[in-house]
Amino acid sequence: MLITIDVKDRRPIYEQIVERVERLIASGVLAAEEQLPSVRQMALELAINPNTIQKAYAILEMKGFIYTVKGRGSFVSGDLTAVEKKKLLWRGKFISLLKEGQELGISEEELLRVLRETVGGEKHD
After folding, report:
1. 32 burial via Cβ count (<10 Å: 0-12, 13-18, 19+)
2. What does the alpha-carbon distance between residue 65 and residue 84 come to, in Å, rounded to a whole number?
3. Which of 40, 53, 62, 81 is buried most, with the most CB atoms less than 10 Å from its CB?
4. pLDDT tens, position by position, 7-39
5. Per-residue pLDDT averaged across 33-55, rounded?
6. What is the mean pLDDT of residues 39-57?
7. What is the per-residue DSSP string for 33-71?
8. Distance of CA 99 to CAs 47, 58, 85, 94, 95, Å?
9. Using CA atoms, how far apart are residues 120 and 6, in angstroms rounded to an integer?
10. Would you say residue 125 has pLDDT above 60?
């Protein structure tokens, strides 16, 4: 699979895996109903703990990008259109940016101001 881990990235490894799998699905590199590597196989390929892969797969399943069939593995969801996939991917990025802003001490009021300015087409600082 086309996933690499960036050791310089400050995000947890499972978040990097989630983001990369989402991109592969949204871009069509991973097709609907395509089977993902097993947790064990991906852990070996990336040389990381299988629990990390399991956590990433659980998040991807919760977000609707994949589904799991007991005893068979995990598969790319076939019920999402390309637009829905892109919306899910955008939502994940948006939430990540909001969390980053909160960690930087940006207030809810400032976040809302930027959102209003952006959506309303007003100029912002």
Report:
1. middle
2. 10
3. 53
4. 888 999 999 999 999 888 877 889 889 999 999
5. 96
6. 96
7. TPBPPPHHHHHHHHTS-HHHHHHHHHHHHHHTSEEEETT
8. 28, 20, 21, 9, 6
9. 36
10. no
For the chain, give the longest Cα–Cα distance: 54
pLDDT digits (tens, 9 = 90+) for 55-82: 999 999 998 889 999 999 999 998 767 6
Domains in the chain (CATH in brackets) are 13-120 (1.10.10.10)
- Which amino acid does the sequence have at 73? G
Residue among 51, 22, 49 nearest 36 (CA): 22
Q: What is the mean pLDDT of residues 89-102?
A: 84
Q: Which residue shows structure tokens 């892969």? A: 53
Q: Which tokens hold the place of 60? A: 């991807």
Could you tell me the two tokens for 98? 């909001």
Crossing angle of helices 50-63 and 39-46, rounded to 10°: 120
Q: What torsion, rounded to 10 degrees, do the Cα atoms 95, 28, 56, 11 define? A: -50
pLDDT of residue 123: 56
